[in-house]
Design brief:
Blueprint: E1 5-8, H1 12-21, E2 25-27, E3 39-42, H2 48-59, E4 64-67, H3 68-75, E5 79-88, E6 101-110, E7 115-118, E8 123-127, E9 135-138, H4 142-145, E10 151-155, E11 165-169, H5 173-190, E12 195-198, E13 209-214, H6 220-233, E14 238-242, H7 250-254, E15 260-265, H8 274-290, E16 297-298, H9 307-315, E17 320-321, E18 333-336, E19 341-345, H10 353-358, H11 363-379, E20 384-388, H12 395-407, H13 415-426, E21 431-435, E22 438-442, E23 451-455, E24 460-465, E25 469-471, E26 478-479, H14 499-517
Parallel strand pairs: 1-2, 1-3, 3-4, 4-9, 13-14, 13-20, 14-15, 16-17, 17-19
Antiparallel strand pairs: 5-6, 5-7, 7-8, 8-9, 10-11, 12-23, 18-19, 21-22, 22-25, 23-24, 24-26
Helix pairs in contact: 1-5, 2-3, 8-9, 11-12
Length: 518
Amino acid sequence: MNIKIGIVGNPIGWRILLQQIGVPHSTVQDTLLPEDYSVVVVSDDADDRESEMLRQYLTLGGAVLCSAKVYARIRQSTAQTINIDYCYPPQNSVFRSLGVIDISAKCQIAWNANDLKTNKGSLAAHVGIHPGDYAIALPFDPGALVLDQRSALKSFPSSERRLPFELVSCISKGEIRQLVSQSLEILCHRRGLPFFHIWSFPNGARSIFCFRIDTDYATDEQLMDLSLIIRRNGVPAAWFIDTKSHNKSLKQFAALENQEIGLHCFEHQTFETYQENLGNIHKAQSILHASNIHANGFASPYGRWNAELGRALVDAGFEYSSEFSYDYDNLPVKTQLSRSEGILQIPIHPICIGSLKHQGYTDVQMIRYFAEVIKRKLANRDSIVFYHHPKDGHHQVLDWIFQEMRRERVPVKSMYEFAQWWNMRMISIPEVEFSHGSLKIQSSIQDRSLYIRIAKADGTEAILPIAQQIVLDTVHWEAQPQAWTMPDNYLRMRRFNYRIPLQRTTDALMKVVLRITK
């Protein structure tokens, strides 16, 4: 029996998700049998012939993850079309560890939907609970949504009265990845199979911490003060240089020990055209090169990303970038351009000390905010990537974050180190066969930092080094950690936040005043 996910229909978006999760996968060719694929995922463009294949596959005991549109075609039933802003797990949901899944799209809901609530209060997903119904039908095609490049202003959850906000990816791609991962695990267990995937962090760690610094307009004194805190805490930070502001300070960056230097910009903006973006990047690169500094990573001003910037980053030779208008609060992922693959994206948490400072948070309130974010990320086994501007200060908050990572024993890596490891992980997903209680694993890359996770239907799991054969009866199984669940009043972040238009108007007026008084 192959432990493999089959892809029917357009594979691009589904490959992104399955690579992130780390499950063996391939596109389905001419035949579709339950022993060949543990679960099959389906895009909305599956045709009538493929729908018939899926119908027979389910009849023979296979499992399918698809949209309600495809499910209705397979089951020859109906689906209701509605506009959905977001979904979230109700009480007793099988997806209880998820948060809010922002969709903002026209969707379809299966007639027998029994999980995931919409912003309108109706149930949106069908999770098969009867024998022979090994199917999960979501209100959307996950493979299509992860390719969505829209951005939107969003509020972020906080226990404080004022909610921070930022312009980020319109779609909650991290939540969709978790939804797909949990769905695949459920369906494997329904078939009596173990769920297998390459673990997300080196050496079986439960998370990883990266710290990014955007140097925007900082003074030499501010840069020095921050570097002292970084050095005192032993953090290999990634400094993304605003070269126009710091042309005369580059020797200071070159002298930093055990730090990564990345590129932020020359002009502090993201342009609409390829040529303007590439020209801005080349101008900044030439300034770095004059000081013998090479930047492997890029982070755009204000976190803005568009396809023309994506093309420019490929041609400029970067190995990774980090823009929260493309993705945020997620594991690394390759960006997708119209006709090609982009470079690796390392998503970050988009709310920084500066965001909280804008809302009038005190040090205590900032620490409480980041404590909530860290608690959820550790519970969900997510990477923890924060960012900061030297001019924003609040060094006590940074000290607390760094100390918290030590207390929680979270490994600290530079963003480039994480990018290198993730690229290796992406090409290390093995072929896996399950027979007589054993997993036979064939991988072309042998690296001791690669671990695997195996989960059983009884709620136990094992995270262990990759090996050629694993006999399940000899594995030490442990109960899965308690899942994160949405706190009370969590959904208030999707209510109208009057501070967003108020703050944006105030900021715009301040810019006009500054321009006049210069």
